[in-house]
Amino acid sequence: MPHDMSMNAYLQPRRFTPADIRSALFSGWQLTRQTWRASLIYGGFFTLIGALILGLLLAHGFGPFVIAAAGAFMLVGPVILAGFFGIARAHERGQPTGPASVWAGFTEASSAIWVISLVCALLFMIFITDAAILYSYMVGGTPVWLNEFETLHIGVGHFLLWGSVSGFAIAFMLYCVSAFSIPLLCERRCSMVSAIVASVRAVFGNFHAALAWALLLAVCGIGSILLLPLLPVTLPWLSHASRALYRHVFP
Predict the structure, then answer these.
(1) d(CA 83, CA 239)
(2) Which residues of 207-224 are buried (b: 16+ CB within 10 A; e: fewer)?
(3) What are residue 62's DSSP bridge partners?
(4) What value does the CA radius of gyration of the chain take, rounded to a whole number of Å?
């Protein structure tokens, strides 16, 4: 597969269907099993970070904010794809998979992924700020513990509703930009602008299938963060599946 940064030729995305998504999920699971040690350790690193953040929120009585925090993780999730690309690339080359292959995934990728990383971080901060404002306005400073969720006042429901609306708008915008641009940049197939344009074309050219894929990523991702022991498995699985789907759309 060409990796020349001078290749800014027009990238025409192929069509994909739910059947292609199922095939990508199968391929992603196979690759996760074949690289299970490196994939689970890399995924486990982010699980530990998630456990620390969720633990702090729960310990201070910010139970409802846990769902917003889980959704916010999906905004920075695309950035970590490079590490899984490194694991997959090392496996394809017959090389050992481990920390070195994760690091190689970042060093061999285009430096433009750091620009998109900054965009992800900016959108993450915007969402967290919006969620914090909504939380203080609708829930207030009274601690809310997990065992109180059944008897919560109406403000928590409003917070979850409007926080979800705000998060969906930001997440969809980021998904259009990064869903296929990050993989293209991980393999140095084009410039940042070309990658973003190609990603948007792929999403809107396969709108219903792309929306189904985004929904699947969101449900599995947020669900795994809320049920944290699942994350070391689902994170590499979905990441490798994303790579498989990308290679179908941009062979």
Answers:
(1) 10
(2) eebbeebbeebbebbbeb
(3) 144
(4) 19
Amino acid found at 117:
S
Residue with tokens 């920075």: 76
Token code pair at residue 232: 């070391």
Its pTM stands at 0.83
Give 144's strand partners: 62
Task: For residue 70, give the amino acid letter.
Answer: A
* CA 210 centroid distance within chain: 14
**Please, is 135 exposed, middle or buried when counting C-beta atoms within 10 Å of its C-beta (0-12, 13-18, 19+)?**
buried
Q: According to the 3-state scheme, what is the secondary structure of the chain?
A: CCCCCCCCCCCCCCCCCHHHHHHHHHHHHHHHHHCHHHHHHHHHHHHHHHHHHHHHHHHCCECCHHHHHHHHHHHHHHHHHHHHHHHHHHHHCCCCCCHHHHHHHHHCCCCHHHHHHHHHHHHHHHHHHHHHHHHHHHCCCCCECHHHHHHCCHHHHHHHHHHHHHHHHHHHHHHHHHCCHHHHHHCCCCCHHHHHHHHHHHHHHCHHHHHHHHHHHHHHHHHHHHCHHHHHHHHHHHHHHHHHHHHHHCC
- Residue 173 CB contacts under 8 Å (≥ 6 apart), including other chains: 123
List, for residues 144-190, the tens digit of each pLDDT value.
655 555 545 666 677 777 777 777 888 888 889 889 999 999 999 98
- Tokens describing residue 4: 């020349």
> pLDDT tens digits, residue range 101-137?
999 999 999 989 888 888 877 887 787 777 777 777 7
At 114, which amino acid appears? Answer: W
